[in-house]
Amino acid sequence: MPRYMDIAAELKRRISEGELLPGAKVPSVRKLAAEWGVATATAAKALAAVSQEGLIHAEPRSGFVVTGTKNVRTPKWSRQHDLTRDRLVRAAIEIADAEGLTAVSMRSVTARLGVATMAPYRHVKGKDELVLLMADAAFGERGYPTKGPTDWRPRLELAARTFWSLFKRHPWLAQLGTITRPLPLPNLTAHSEWMLVPLAALGLSAAEMLDITVLIFSYTQGIAIHLEREQQAFSSSGMSDEDWLDSTEGAIQAITAMGRFPTFTKMITALNVDGYDLILDDLFEQGLRALLDGLAIRFADRENQGHG
């Protein structure tokens, strides 16, 4: 029997006999590798095997935890005639939030709802339409105050932070659409409308207004893309951020030892002493501030030139 299967069997025994209770954190890749005297890749493969059976699931930055009966969702709508488009969309969003967009299929949604395989096709044509409905529903979860700020900067700030909060709630949402192929969704258009009002008041052209709204959205989306990528990386490798950094330590040392990158080496040396945590919330705020500061300079120049 392959070594990873031995590790997987032991983990399953601990879960079945109650040594690892629902919600309990499973030993990390590094700990399993040390305990069993195997490579981290072997330990990661064992965790992946147990995860595929649904006994454990990955939680970003936390590691694998035991699923158990308390985390198993029972279908809320077991009768086919109770199925509605809204329930179909909500079930698909739940799957995407928990497991990523790739886990969403017509079969996985029907399994969650406990309905016949063909039942969803009374409401949607297929997965592509379902994903668009999911996105529209997700973008519609957060709106704006009726009496909000009128100046361009606080309006754009609120729009960007609203997008950020939605992407954090639904990491898969940032994976959809491109700048050149925007999603034609009413609830996404509502966010654009909020940004366009103060830009129109500045006397900007249609092209300038569109450029700025796309810039705000795509900046936020660009940072948010890493939310799901981090989750996917963890799920596929079983390695936490700390495990991954440990695994790359030798490669980083080899690069700094080349002597070709003195500034990079000095930075890494300082970070090893002082420590550093990459916090996406902080990075988002820092980038947003720089982006809006740049727009402020642009608008000021425009007024000075008599175009305001």
UniProtKB/TrEMBL annotation:
One GO term (biological process): negative regulation of DNA-templated transcription
UniProt keyword terms in alphabetical order: DNA-binding, Transcription, Transcription regulation
Domain of life (superkingdom): Bacteria
A molecular function (GO) term: DNA-binding transcription factor activity
InterPro entries in the record: Homeodomain-like_sf, HTH-type_TetR-like_transc_reg, HTH_TetR, Repressor_TetR_C, Tet_transcr_reg_TetR-rel_C_sf, Tscrpt_reg_HTH_GntR, WH-like_DNA-bd_sf, WH_DNA-bd_sf
HTH tetR-type domain: residues covered: 82-142
Keyword match Transcription regulation: yes
PROSITE patterns: HTH_GNTR (PS50949), HTH_TETR_2 (PS50977)
Xref: Gene3D superfamilies: Homeodomain-like, Tetracycline Repressor, domain 2, Winged helix-like DNA-binding domain superfamily/Winged helix DNA-binding domain
Pfam (any one): TetR_C_1
Domain HTH gntR-type: 1-69
DNA-binding region, residue intervals: 105-124
Keyword Transcription: yes
Family matches, as SUPFAM superfamilies: Homeodomain-like, Tetracyclin repressor-like, C-terminal domain, Winged helix' DNA-binding domain
Listed name of the protein: Transcriptional regulator, TetR family
Species this chain originates from: Kibdelosporangium aridum
Lineage, top ranks: Bacteria, Bacillati, Actinomycetota, Actinomycetes, Pseudonocardiales
